[in-house]
User: What shape does this take?
Amino acid sequence: MNFKEEQKNKIAGIENILARFLPEAAGYQKIIMEAMEYSLMAGGKRLRPLLMWETFRMFGGTGAVIEPFMAALEMIHTYSLVHDDLPAMDNDEYRRGRKTTHVVYGEAMGILAGDALLNRAFETAASAFDIEGADARTVGRAMQILAAKAGVFGMIGGQVVDVESSGKKIDAEKLDFIYRLKTGALIECAMMIGATLAGARKTEVRAVESIASKVGEAFQIQDDILDVTSTTEVLGKPTHSDEKNEKTTYVTYKGLEASRAEVEHLSKEAVRQLRELNPPDSFLEELLLSLIHREK
Assistant: This one.
């Protein structure tokens, strides 16, 4: 089986896990459950749960304890996109090739759908305590990572500085801060939780965090490149959005060629560190390297 086929099969497995943890659309609040499903099941790369799963496997993890965390992290990532698309933020009408949540359900329901996904994420992650054979202390550590990386010292913190910096020239240090938190934090979260739930040592979890940080930065710079070079049809969302919102990006700061070179450098460095940590894992390596060549 080649990489693309294997990736497709793994993503299909993740889709099943996500659907399982969604609430049934019923009752007076049925509309919010429909909006949650619309947002979460819109497709996408499922990069974060995939990285979590593969890191868990790399450290010898087995069993279902990883599944609630895979779903929870994708819910958090999705809620951040739902809120990012709102008129008060990026005001985007398309995401993953279809209308954004607030366009379909209205701005109020867009806000509430994001809120509901965030809360459901922690309900879902907490259900791991009830899985037979799960170690409560390990699950607790994974919960701490999830909360920290999604909060004001993680993704939200990065988004705050990103929004605050719109229309302003920022230096390289602040741009790096935004990338490390806004995008990198949830990728770090994915791989750290995978390692933690598999029983990795603290030094190994820290090494995984370093690898994931590079992956996150490479991923965000590639996003900047595609915003300039791709089309709405290929990308599934509006292009030139950064320019519209007057955002400083790695591309505006360094130019296209330097940005492409940095994506390649970061991705290859992440793979080098991964090989030092564990015997080569061809799928995980190829997944990291595919970030260089992705077109959407």
Observations:
- The beta strands are 94-95, 98-99.
